[in-house]
Amino acid sequence: MNIPQQPVDSALLAYQLTEAPADTNVSRLAATIQRLRREIEEAQHAAEGRALIELAKGVLIERLRCGVAKAAQQLATLAEQAGVTQLELAADIINQAAQDRISEVVREFLTAAEAGTATPGASDVAIRLRAAESGALKAPDTQAVAESLLEHALAPLGATAVAVWEAGPDASFTLVGYAGFSEEEARRWRYVPPGVVTPARRALVERQAVWMEGIGDGGLPSIGQRETAGGRVTVPAGTGGRVMGVLEIAWPHPLPPQPPQIRKQIEALAELCAHTLDTPMRQEHEPRVLPELIDLADALPDPALVLRPHLDADGRLTDFRVHHTNSHFVDPAGRPRSVVTGSLLLEAYPLAAVDDGLFTKIEYVHATGEPFRSEQMMLTALVDQVPLPSVAGISITRHGDNVLLIWRIQDEAARLASILQHAQRLGRIGGFEENTLTGEITWNGQLYALYGMESGEQPIPLDRLADHAHPDDGVAIGRFLATVLHHRRSASTAFRLQRPDGITRQIRVVAEPVFDADNRLVAVRGAYQDISSQHWTEVALAATRDQLAETEQQVAEQNRLALRLQHAIMPASREPIEISGLNIAVRYRPAEKEHLVGGDWYDVVMLPSKQILISVGDVAGHGIKAATVMVVLRNALRGLAVTGAGPAQLMTWLNLVAHYLTDTVTATAILGLYDPETRVLRWARAGHLPPILVRQGDAEELDLLRGILLGAISESDYVEGEIQLTPGDILLMYTDGLIERRDQALQHSQEQLLHTARHSTETLERRLDYLLTHNNSDTDDDTCIVGIQLH
């Protein structure tokens, strides 16, 4: 409603702008503008309130059978007695009289407020919703409807923008009203083609409200996505089972879950939008069934039904009425057209109501406008209460408020022919028949495609088959023709077909003779099959098998060589050694699989200095390479130890050997030098697990000395440690194959090993056997244990 602004004295305004100070003039002018704007808003609200009061007066006039003055007096009296304003009472009277969706929302909101589950204020909700309804009803277009909804009903909920989308018959969207979005954004989103997934389309397809905490959560584009990046809700707006459009509301901040009362308000506003979209302001009135639709159905060569929505007393869609059947209509149950025409769809075909059946598809198309087509859909009709299934091609489209249903029942012969056609296409098979009396040749379409020929070209007879084949296949084709044409027996052969386009295909042909009642040969029929892919697959497999066999033979030979080398240097078991007061025992268990020959090694040797060198190592990897590196490192350590250097220096030199004299292979190692005179063992490690000392029934690991694994870098320093052995002490050195597991950490496995090492045994050899028996490793790796016991 336009309220004229109050005139301002021009002379007074001129004086204020010239004589008064500048800042005073500006503040006065701003105060005047603010006062005028406030007066305009108050006038607008008063006008909207008067509209509700006038509607309430109309209800009282109808109920009390009185005049306008008496109704106004009665309204004022009732408001005074109830202690509410006339506007609040007017909204309550309208709710009581209307009993519509808005009334339902207000009642639920009031009930929740009384129960303490919602903020009180049902009267405010009623006034806002009725004011929005009044503004929508008197709005000249949907643009004004959107502005009224935002101002009266949505802004109090914190929303800052709204868009009203009209759904087209092809499931497209047209922006018919908006508020809170910029004009440039509205122009960009004026039309959304069908198939573009947006929040509005989700609401259309799902036929329910879609709430999003943020517009970016669902990853769907929509209007004002950059301007208003907060919460969004899209609600389908429909009546009578048909979705007319979608109401989209935007918030500037993330939208938390809303109570049911707010959701009901939003759905009531969407229903209000549906009524405005269905009014003459949007489109001219059209009859329930278009004559053009009847003409279209009659012109179709397939059975067609024109369906009209059937609504109950509350305007809800319950069924579809068969308004028209065309002349080609054939009822699956054998009933005449007159029986089906005019009946309800679920009465005529009750089994169409099964889940995801025909009725569900029709209802979806009517609601969304999105067409549905299926080449094969099961239809079931009741014939004397006996279900009669049949397969049909279905097409469902919406035209205005009506639905056009087209079906084509597939008979058994057509269905089998279709299956055969697809089978020939998938199997690359072409069929033929050649009349030996008339020379007439019949090819199907797939055979033309195999030969690379056009469907109108002259087919190639069997006796000219060799002209289109590779010359080397002439003998095989000759035998095939002699068997079929002369000996009159079925036969098959394979040949290389040389097509006109220069492509060569591997073809298998099979044929059989056809005889008449007098046993005369009258025709030859058969089929060609393109077996090129199978042929080249077999060729590739044959080559792969040959290459694989050669590779397997090489790998097996390498594994046998590595295993022999490993067994020659380190036998699986050896007798204990008694040397300089030490009892030394070794247990070596190779990998369970021969192809996993590893690089574990151990060595015990007395040096010229009478010191005893004890070493254990593990080369990374398996096979001949690991075994070879193991031999290099083991022998190099023996040679270096003769120099009399300590363990740390020996490990430094051994690292140089691993880095420069092997092919980029790394290894872990631990070595010790035992002096029989002092009973001191000096030791160093390179990335290896520390030794375990068993003393007086307890077991513990020695300190983890610093030392990087061998071969990783060229220059590396190693730390040397020492331990004073006492009689009865046992020192265990081992490789990770003893404890390593795939399903647990190495630290946990080490703790289990310490627990096992505390087990008391009669001899050192039995202690090592016990460790091997009760280890928890599962990596199938080599395992090496060296035990030292001081007498």
TrEMBL record:
Keywords, in A-Z order: Coiled coil, Hydrolase
UniProt feature coiled coil, ranges: 26-81, 541-568
Domain of life: Bacteria
Residue intervals of the ANTAR domain: 33-94
Record flagged with keyword Coiled coil: yes
Record domain PAC: where: 491-543
GO MF terms held by the record: phosphatase activity; RNA binding
UniProt-listed InterPro entries: ANTAR (IPR005561), Bact_Sigma-Reg (IPR052016), CheY-like_superfamily (IPR011006), PAS (IPR000014), PAS-assoc_C (IPR000700), PAS-like_dom_sf (IPR035965), PAS_fold_3 (IPR013655), PPM-type-like_dom_sf (IPR036457)
Keyword Coiled coil: yes
Pfam families: ANTAR (PF03861), PAS_3 (PF08447), SpoIIE (PF07228)
PANTHER family: STAGE II SPORULATION PROTEIN E (PTHR43156:SF2), STAGE II SPORULATION PROTEIN E-RELATED (PTHR43156)
Protein name in UniProt: Transcription antitermination regulator
Source species of the chain: Nonomuraea cavernae
